[in-house]
Amino acid sequence: MPINLLIVIRQVHGTETPWCCKVCGKQFKLKTNWMEHQKTHENDKLFSCDLCGAGFKSSQSLKRHTGQVHEGKKRKQYPKKRNVNCDD
Ligand SMILES: [Zn+2]
Ligand SMILES: [Zn+2]
Questions:
Q1: Which listed ligand is nearest to 52 at the C-alpha?
Q2: Which among 11, 42, 16 has a CA at the least distance from the CA of 31?
Q3: Counting C-beta atoms within 10 Å of the first and last residue's C-beta, which end of the chain has fewer, N or C?
Q4: Is 55 helix (H, G, I), strand (E, B) or coil?
Q5: In angstroms, what is the span from residue 1 Cα to ligand 1's centroid?
Q6: What's the 30 CA to ligand 1 centre distance in angstroms?
């Protein structure tokens, strides 16, 4: 069996499979660590609401949010999310 194929099999089935963060490319051996790490990117959303700081992945979501939450209603104060730093 070619060595390359052995490596692939190890990566697919072994415990050494690195979980790769799609946001920053960081790799983790354990899924739990990877999942914990994903939380550090929760505030990395591209579109953020100027009024309450909520983050959204698309401008449409932000527009919908602005319409639903901030327009035509009394402005509601949302507590800002705390940025929790996680050491993997
Ligand atoms: Zn990351
Ligand atoms: Zn808002």
A1: 2
A2: 16
A3: N
A4: strand
A5: 35
A6: 14
**What pLDDT digit, counting tens, does each position of 25-76 carry?**
899 999 999 998 888 777 566 788 888 888 888 889 889 999 999 986 555 5
Q: Is 42 exposed, middle or buried (0-12, 13-18, 19+ CB in 10 A)?
A: exposed
81 vs 67 pLDDT, higher one: 67
Distance CA 56, CA 60 (A): 9
Does residue 68 contact residue 78 with C-beta atoms inside 8 Å? no
DSSP helix/strand/coil, 34: helix
Give every CB contact of residue 38 below 8 A, 6+ residues apart in sequence: 21, 23
* Eight-class DSSP state of 68: I
